[in-house]
Amino acid sequence: MTHKRDLRIVFMGTPDFAVATLKALIDNNYNVVGVLTAPDRPAGRGQKLRASAVKEFALEHQLNILQPTNLKAESFLEDLKALNANLQIIVAFRMLPKVVWQMPKYGTFNLHASLLPQYRGAAPIHWAIINGETKTGVTTFFIDEKIDTGAIIQSEETEIGPTTTVGQLHDELMAIGSELVIKTVEQIETDSVTTTIQPQTDDLRTAYKLNRENCKIDWSQPIDTIYNKIRGLNPFPTAWCYLDNDDNEPLSVKLYGVEKREENHNNANGCIIATKDELKVACQGGYINILEIQLPGKRKMEIKSLLNGFNFSESSKLL
Questions:
Q1: In the sheet that 239-244 helps form, which strands lie side by side, from edge to edge?
Q2: C or N: which end of the chain has fewer Cβ atoms within 10 Å?
Q3: 137 phi-psi bin (left φ>0, alpha ψ -120 to 50, beta other)
């Protein structure tokens, strides 16, 4: 019978996605001796300092919190070492220096929201949808010196529905991921881990960091490409484009809920067809029917609310 290890865990994470895993560790009575999370950041119109979601949860459960700005600082390394952890778990944190991830006896493992080696990088959930994947998953792996390349411990697969948004998939993977972390900890706890080296392949898709440029809609692309981009960025950080309504400077607008309608037409790409009840935009292979939109300085609104008070010209288009 395998001996059960006495684990002392340091958890590292920052956003909501990480909270589910930290909660699962607490609910399963694991000894979390410390929590690393990002420093408080200015947020909102008042730019008041705001704690991370992980910090708020850690405070509620009276956990020891570290918020280093420099992961190589001697003072931080001394504080981390003083926790006497023998296992470190990372969920949506930052790249660690070797001196940190090598510190615990049983290693440091990460939960990544893709089926590695596919979608290494900062935004795996978004890019899986943007690229039209029909499946994805979560993976636990031991940290090494490169980004998301370490030996795989476990993975769990799930399907991506044809209308699934990144918000929906985020929440699903958050739940699946927290369960996978517990399974991984149980294996480490009982010394029953078997790892798999990530395969070397040229057919890799990367989860690049999202920015304003790669979130912009190109209305000359095929309907599926546009539709997948919009749902892959809904609700955050949101796909955007320009609204050209003739009489004004083009407006930067964000698109949230949309539907696609595949049909033949002779309209120019980006051409807007507006009625009292709907607004659709022409593209290769059909129309994107806009259900939710956000204008500059306004809140997100249903398209019927926009149509009640906004006049589109015959030459209105999205750019």
A1: 301-302, 292-294, 251-255, 239-244, 317-318
A2: N
A3: left
Q: Identify whether residues 53 and 107 lie together within a single domain.
A: yes
| Cα–Cα distance list, 19 to 139, 157, 258, 276 (Å) | 17, 21, 30, 43
Q: What is the pLDDT of residue 1?
A: 33
Annotated binding site: 114-117
The residue among 189, 223, 255 that closes a domain is 189
4 domain-assigned: no
318: left (phi over 0), alpha (psi -120 to 50) or beta: beta
Question: Can you give the residue range of the structural domain that contains 273?
Answer: 213-318
Question: Cis omega before residue 117 (within 30°)?
Answer: yes
C-alpha span between 252 and 305 (Å, rounded) = 18
Bind-site residues for (6S)-5,6,7,8-tetrahydrofolate: 114-117
Tell me whether strands 120-121 and 206-207 are parallel, antiparallel or unpaired: parallel
